[in-house]
Amino acid sequence: MRIGFGIGLGRPVSVAGVAPLSPPTLTLTLTPATPAVGDLVTITGIAGGNPAPTDFASLSLTIGGTAVGLAGSGLSRTFVARAGAIAAAASVTTTEGTASTTLSGTVAAGPTVATISGFGSSTIEGDGASGTAAYALSLIGGAMGAGTIRNKGIAGTVLQNSLASGGVPLASNGRDRFVADLLGANRSDRLYILYGANDLRYTGAPATFNLAGFATDMREVMNGLLRGGYARGEIVIGSPNWYPDSTYSVGSAGFTGSNRTIHEAYVNECLAIATEYGVAYADVYGKLRDLGGVALMSADGLHCNDAGHQVIAHAFLTAAQVNARAAVTVGAASAPSLQTLSLGWTAVAGAISYTVEAGLSGSYGFAQTATVSGTTNSFTGLAAGVYVGRIRANFADGAGPWSFWATPVTVSDTAPPARTVTGQDTFTGKVAGTLVEALVPTLGTWVRHASSTGNAAITSDSVALRGPGTTSQFCVATLANQALGAGVFVELDYKVLTNNAQLTSYGVARASSADLTFLAAGYNGSAWRILKYVAGTATVLGTYTFAESVGALPTMRFEVETGIQRLYRNDVLVLTTTEPDSGLGTTGTGLGLRIGAGTTAWTSANGAPYTGIRVGRLGA
């Protein structure tokens, strides 16, 4: 018997019911096919071959030449779109070979800003993400083209400063830190607020720490931000992020025992507050719940993974303002008489009434409230203090957003002191072209300060005193000296010919004869201001924004007492500052005027020249 062995080589033979092996194939698709900035985009690999690829061997994506972070697994990844040309490259590998492909496209340009801020707790801070580039705030900044990202998230914090179980507010709460973190030098072009996830989980002091406290303090934050210079379109409030029911039983002392009903009440409150103030609202809760749920959470069940941070960024970037009703244009508030605060505003089409509120500056609360049908309101019987306020129009289908008074108003409960005139001059009827130091006043003697760089002169029509006819010059001149005593005042009559911020007309009090050190108050073409000058360096102490009508003839009175300065416009107190005497350097007793030219020179037909001046002391 012979036994033979042989090896046969050839193409695989298909076995009945089994597909033959084949090299892989790969194509890429985008959903949506033409994404916009902020869209949550899915890049999907459609793979073929036997065995079929189940994952990318490699995948890279750039938009506008910048690498974009991806989240997901398998043959699907997600990312938040930013503006620019899309370039993706991917490959898959199996035992039968490798397939590669590319994809290109464009995301149209959207709005860009220079700076953004995020304000909240651990999610804004970035917990759960794989690194800084994967933080929701970093993704938002990339999409908005922001060169500066201010991350003001602090893990473990709450928004409200309500009393916790220890009888004091929790540390670093948002209500107590928003001024320092979000205003002044930290003010950004866009602000993204994400608070509430920890507030709703805290059950340690339900009588004092609850939804009502959260709502009150969120409103106080909004009041402060809008009064502090943010526009409604620059703020986005996000709802507390979603997490599964199991998370309610996990946490440190006091942070367990909440439930879905409480959670969603906080979500609804955030929407209500965004509507009340007319800012944008991001449904972070709904997006996380509907676009992945548990799959978007990190292992602790509270924080989001990279895919979850992508969804949060998407929610913020696609947020929209939720109250499209008209806002009120607020007029100037004033204190026309003792214990009285008055305000006027422009009528809003379709409004059936207006809600007006006022309260002490610094409190963020509004104890005084009224609903009126007209366009003026006065609060009477007020205690002395500095007041701020807000107003909104009411329509048949709801209320419009709050508008805030531009400038605090001082309300007095005592009559102003008597005034004794010690120097005065009426410029009307003087010889045209006469310089201020050559004028003969009714009372007193004019002295032009030696540090002046230009001249003040009578206008060509002999009706007023104008400033320097050359740019970048000023003239300081005093009419009388008066010891501070109980106080001093400067009163100036104006004739507004044009409004130009480069032409300033101020009254001067306590001027030193040795250097340019004095207090000043007056008009700059768009606002009334109180300033201090120390050795020529000016500091604005307060501003009352009010543009005078061309042709107006306002009178300003500037009163100075120890540690307090008051500016009256037409006998209405519109601005009070409290600069201490110790901050003024070496001051003198001169009373008079400062009139200056910036990039525009004075003529006889521009600016707000003076038609009269009175100076003297306060009190009998």
Automatic annotation (TrEMBL):
<dbReference type="GO" id="GO:0016788">
    <property type="term" value="F:hydrolase activity, acting on ester bonds"/>
</dbReference>
<protein>
    <recommendedName>
        <fullName>SGNH hydrolase-type esterase domain-containing protein</fullName>
    </recommendedName>
</protein>
<dbReference type="Pfam" id="PF13472">
    <property type="entry name" value="Lipase_GDSL_2"/>
</dbReference>
<dbReference type="InterPro" id="IPR013830">
    <property type="entry name" value="SGNH_hydro"/>
</dbReference>
<dbReference type="InterPro" id="IPR036514">
    <property type="entry name" value="SGNH_hydro_sf"/>
</dbReference>
<dbReference type="InterPro" id="IPR036116">
    <property type="entry name" value="FN3_sf"/>
</dbReference>
<dbReference type="InterPro" id="IPR013783">
    <property type="entry name" value="Ig-like_fold"/>
</dbReference>
<dbReference type="InterPro" id="IPR003961">
    <property type="entry name" value="FN3_dom"/>
</dbReference>
<feature type="domain" description="SGNH hydrolase-type esterase">
    <location>
        <begin position="119"/>
        <end position="311"/>
    </location>
</feature>
